[in-house]
Design a protein that fits this description.
- The chain is mainly alpha-helical.
- Helices cover 86% and strands 0% of the residues.
- It contains three helices and no strands.
- Helix 1 runs parallel beside helix 3.
- The radius of gyration is 16 Å and the shape is elongated.
- The N and C termini lie far apart (51 Å).
């Protein structure tokens, strides 16, 4: 996998993770807590794929490979960080909705 493919992989998996985390929040809002947690598990898997690619890029650079800082790489990092934030918030929302539906 070349550099650009790696960067696009971060975007792809980060976007998937964010979408799945948002899906989890919507499922929790509907009261389907178990489905919400399942979507969040899938989001974690996608986020891990994105993180693994990011780690590989970091390791390549640390080993002496030159890295291009392109707008595409910055966009990829933005996707990754947003996915992590939405995933973290999804955990909180699911817990909140679960508590509301217990009452």
């Amino acid at each position: 996998m070349d550099y650009q493919e790696k960067v696009l992989g971060i975007i792809l998996h980060g976007g998937n993770a964010r979408s799945l985390a948002m899906e989890a929040i919507l499922k929790a809002k509907e009261g389907n807590i178990s489905a919400a947690r399942k979507s969040l598990e899938e989001a974690e898997k996608e986020l891990n794929l994105s993180h693994n690619i990011q780690t590989q890029l970091i390791q390549d650079e640390a080993a002496g490979s030159e890295s291009e800082i392109t707008l595409l790489l910055i966009h990829a990092q933005d996707h990754f960080m947003n996915a992590m934030t939405v995933k973290d918030l999804a955990y909180e929302f699911i817990d909140l909705y679960e508590n509301l539906y217990r009452r």
